[in-house]
Structure formats: structure tokens, C-alpha cells
Q: What sequence folds into this?
């Protein structure tokens, strides 16, 4: 049976180092989905992208709203789907490290250092306007 997750279950689920499916709309109105690293902190998603050389940055200039899906790969299936408008912020080494080292300490540190040299690297912070969850392992 499916049940929505509690706030505590949402936090625990989103703190696991999963990839999210990050969806934007391009200039022609087509949906674009790509896997991204993320950080869930204090009820907000944090992401990073490049504004000039990545589709994400170009898409956000045209259509700033996004959808994010984080789902388990194993049964019982669980998922969080969020919609919102991310704020675009200057890059910050501490936040880049917080995002990247969730996916591997050493490689995350190398990636973050290299990312600080990218002139168009930014952070995205999104407090969801809507959050839909389910947990097929919960009982009603």
C-alpha cells in the first residue's frame, strides 16, 4: 500500500546519496531531463550547473521553473517529486564540497576544486513549492 512519507522520512530518504532527475524546459518548449547530484538541507535542494556551457543554465533563463524526482531503485519503492523555481547563486567552495563529497570524498574534492575555476559555475537553491512523496513499503 502507498503512503506519503513523514517529514522525517523525507529527510532521511533525501540524505541518501542518490541521483535526482532534474527537469527543465528548453527555449523551444521541450522537456529536458538529466541526472544531477544534489544536496537536501533545511528543506531545500541544492544543485550546481554552468550557465553558459550547460543546457541547464540556458533553460533556466528561458523557463525558470523545474521539476526534481528522487526515487529508490530497490523495493519497496519510495520517491520524492518536487517543483519550484531555483535561485541562482554564486559558486561557493564549501557548498560545492557539501554536494560533491556525498558521492565520493576524494573525487568530490577534486571535482569541487576544478569547478571553482569555471567562470560560469553557479549554485542553485530550491525550496520546493510542492512536494509529493510515496513509500510503497509503508502500511496504511
A:
Amino acid at each position: 500500500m502507498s503512503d506519503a512519507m513523514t517529514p522525517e522520512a523525507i529527510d532521511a530518504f533525501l540524505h541518501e546519496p542518490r541521483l535526482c532527475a532534474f527537469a527543465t524546459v528548453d527555449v523551444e518548449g521541450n522537456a529536458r531531463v538529466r541526472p544531477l547530484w544534489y544536496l537536501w538541507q533545511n528543506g531545500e535542494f541544492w544543485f550546481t550547473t554552468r550557465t553558459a556551457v550547460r543546457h541547464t543554465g540556458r533553460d533556466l533563463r528561458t523557463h525558470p521553473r523545474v521539476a526534481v524526482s528522487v526515487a529508490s531503485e530497490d523495493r519497496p519503492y519510495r520517491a520524492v517529486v518536487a517543483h519550484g523555481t531555483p535561485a541562482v547563486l554564486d559558486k561557493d567552495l564549501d557548498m560545492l564540497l557539501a554536494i560533491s563529497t556525498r558521492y565520493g570524498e576524494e573525487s568530490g574534492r577534486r571535482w569541487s576544486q576544478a569547478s571553482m575555476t569555471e567562470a560560469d559555475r553557479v549554485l542553485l537553491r530550491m525550496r520546493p513549492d510542492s512536494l509529493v512523496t510515496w513509500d510503497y513499503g509503508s502500511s496504511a
Notes: The chain has one domain: 7-91+119-135.
